[in-house]
Amino acid sequence: MVKKNNDVHSKGKNPKTTKDESKMVIPRKTGYFNFLKIKGHEMKKQKIVDKVDTKTKKEIANMWQKLDATQKAEYDSKTPSTNASNKGCLKISTRCSPKDIKDTINVLSDEKKAAIEEMGFVSLLEMKCGKLSHSLCHFLVDKLDPAESSIVLHGKTFKISVDDFVRIMGVKDGGEEVHFTGSMDDQDIVNMRNSFLGGKKLLKNNELKQIMVGTEEASDFFKVGFVMFALCTLLCPTTSVYVNLKYLLPLRDSKAIARKNWASYSLRFLLDSVRSFKENNQVYIGGCLLFLQLFYLDAIAHGSVLVDRSVLPLTVWGKVETEKMKKWLQKKGGFESDKVVVMKTEYGGLGDDAKTMTHFAEELSSIKKDVATLVATVARMDKSLSKIMSELSSRNEEKERTLRTPCPH
C-alpha cells in the first residue's frame, strides 16, 4: 500500500465551494475563448495593449457580455487561426510545461533522482528545454496528420513512430501496455487517492508538484506521484489544470512502472489529442508538444546551430539553441521555406531517405572541397609571403653594405 507522507499537504483551508466540485466541471463555451483569443490578438496588433493581462481579459469579457446570442454563435465555429497570416503569431494554448518538470527535478534530492532513473525516466533528469516555442508548435500541429501519424516539413512527409518518441524523448517501452483496468473504488486505489487529495475533491498539477517536493523520502508514494506529475505536465497533459487520478490504476504497483509502454502510450495520446483539437475547434490542446518541437529541430539537416546528434535531442535543445535556429529559419524564409533541408534520423542511425542523404553527402563533399581549396590557398600565400620576406631581407642587406662602403674623395 502506498503510504501518505504526513508533511506534504498544506494546512491551509480548502477553497470555498457552494456545490460539490465534482459536479461543477462545466467548461466555458468554445466561442468565448475564441473571442478572447481573437480580440486579444487584435488589441496587441493595433498597439492598444502591450500584452493581454488580467485587466485586458476583463475588458474583453465585458465586450463578450454585450454581444447578443447570434453574434456569440459566430465565434463557436471560428478558431483563432482562421486568418492564415496569423498562424505563426497566435500562441497555442497547452498545459505541456517542460519548465515545471525541469524546475521540480532541480530541487529533488539525489535519492529521489535515483528513483526516477530506476523507473525508466532518466532522460528527464537531463532535460535542457524549459519553454515551448508556441509559434513553432502552432505550425507543427497544423502540419501533423494524426490519422496517418505523419507530418509535412518543408515539403517532405515524415512518418512518426514510437521509435521516434524513444529517440527524441528517451522515454521507452517496457513491454506491458498501459491499461486502466480495475475500479477507482478498489480499496487500494481509494487509499492512494485520499493520500494525494488530503481531504480535497480535486488536485491541481501545481499542488501535486508541491507534494512531490515536500515528500521527504523516495517512497512508493513519491514514485507514483512523480510519474503522475510527469504524465500530466509533459508526456500526456490534458486540457485541464487538474491531475487525472485515473492514472492511479496503471500505477498501483510502483515496482511495475518501468515495465509499462510509456512511449507508445504518450505518442498515441498526442495523436488523439491533436485529432480532437482539430475536429472540435478546441482552444487548448493536449499531448506532448515538446516531442513535436524536438522532432522538427532534429530533422533540420544543417543550420546555424551545431548540436551533438549522438545524444538525445531532449538533452541538447535548450532555449538558446532553439532561438538561434528560429532566427536562421527566418533568414531562410520561415517554417514553410523550401530552402531548408530536412532529414529523419532513425532509432538505429541515419534514415534511408536516399534523396536527402545524397543531398547531404553532396553538401558535405562540397564543404570538404572548399576546405581543401582554402588550405591550398593559405599554403600559396605562405610561400609568397616567404619569398617577399626573403627579397626584403636581401634588399636590406644590400642597403646596409652600401651605407658601410666609404665614399671616394
From TrEMBL:
Residues 1-23, 390-409 are annotated as: Disordered. Residues 1-10, 394-403 have a biased composition (Basic and acidic residues). Keywords: Membrane, Transmembrane, Transmembrane helix. The chain crosses the membrane at residues 221-245. This is HMG box domain-containing protein. It comes from Prunus persica (Peach).
